[in-house]
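User: I'll paste a sequence; please echo it back and then give the predicted structure.

Assistant: Echoing your sequence first, then the prediction.
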Amino acid sequence: MAIMGALEAFVMNLAIIGTGYVGLTTGTCFAEVGHNVVCVDNNRDKVQALLDGKMPIYEPELEDLISSNVSAGRLAFTTDLAEAVATCDIIFIAVPTPPHDDGSVDLSYIEAVSHDIADALRPEYGYRVIVDKSTVPVSTGRKVYEVIARYSRADLDVDVVSNPEFLREGSAVQDLMHPDRVVIGTNSQRAMDLMKRVYQPFSAPIVEVDLASAELIKHAANSFLALKISYINAVSRVCEKSGADVELVAKGIGMDKRISRHFLNAGLGYGGSCFPKDVKGFINISRQLGAPLHLLEEVENINATQLEHFVNRIKEQLWVLRNKRIAVWGIAFKQNTDDVRESVAVKIIRRLAEEGALVTAYDPKAAETGAKALEGCPVEICDDMYECVRGAEVLVVATEWKQFANANLVRVRELMKLPIIFDGRNVIHGENAVHAGFEYHSVGRKSLYPANK
């Protein structure tokens, strides 16, 4: 898979601080194109697990790439930040930036790493570039520079860069290896030239901007995508009332090149580690700057009420949910990941359990992470998607895994007590469901019933 043309002249020594989704995937893909990469984490157990070849996350293709690049000597893992700073030209910060309740971002991890970098730097190491890879509010890069300058032991030759990531969990490797664009924000041409050297093997368009603009681009981009999702979900409710088909409406909208079809899929709303946090963060940033983005507040509202709207439709069908057996397919926030952070599927499971429903759930990759997220919730997590529906009165599809779309619906019908499907992701073919004997309810489309109903 390695991209040809990563010439030795462009090989650099890179440090990635933080081995979460962003740090681990970024570091691995940098190694894949030929750079020498050391990934640093202060969690000794996590580092040891990586050294032992154990994956802390599920991400397609990533495990094989880590194994091959470790074997090739281009990728290493350590807890020794000082050694990484001493030997690497560019140091990427990819640590968590969790939200506070008010939407502001907890920058304590960024500050702590900046302090550690300042302690580790020495004048004799020469020029160093510090890169914010984490999603951060505007002005964070300036703060990082101030911390390093304040706590360093001597005058240092350092520049700070913002290089936001645009990774989609479930396709992060492909997004990194074949990016739409690379955003590099800095006020230093020297730093820009080094960063362009890092990305030269990827043959991607580079957007050269100032530090503040780069920091805003990530929040603005994710918030716009969340807006598209909330918009089509709002349209889906109009479709349900009018008898229109949201899939056809989205197709007609998306064929306009100014809009595109991407992120116009009606469903249960957005979740995950990025969109909820980034929308809240951008709202908070805009308020602090005195230019509040009220539009994004409505985006949040639509997203929150979409789940409740869906649950109410199930209640309308079953009348009372208490002691009703409901099977939920999906726990992860999207397909091809085991990530359950801000998962709408998890929220639905909890909501149904609150109503007294007897909930079973299945996910092909998120059983373990889901069990932790649902701790204290009376839900049975199953090992098999078909056993999950045994005796169920309703099947809810909450995550868009391909195996759910391709399920043997005749077998599912035989196992269920009542033939009712609520497809929250519009992944099952409605006519196939009806042919198998189901009542089929989806998002933004007419409900379908067998001929004898």
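The two ends are 53 Å apart (CA to CA). The CA atoms of residues 186 and 211 lie 5 Å apart.
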